[in-house]
Specification:
Blueprint lengths: L23 H26 L9 H22 L4 H14 L4
Amino acid sequence: MSTTEERNVPVTEKKVKPSREIPYKQAVIMLGIGDLFCFLIFVAFGRNSHGEASGFAAIPQVIITALPFAAGWFLVSPFVGALCFCAEFLWITVYHRLVLPS
């Protein structure tokens, strides 16, 4: 018998692998934090390209500029299904492949 074949043993003797599934609430929170982070980066690059203040001193201004974008996104995203199971499944799959390699 090769090492890749599974032996025929009773269920009580088989080792159960721990599940890597992330709870739904935690996945939505992670997606929300990721979205917010993307808005902050987008605004920081935009302010820099328009010659406005950038860097660590401009963090409060970057946050204030990003607020309307984030508010609009978080108000609209539930209605367009951005945080639905399919989106969650996609990002969890990406997370497991990139962050938690087997």
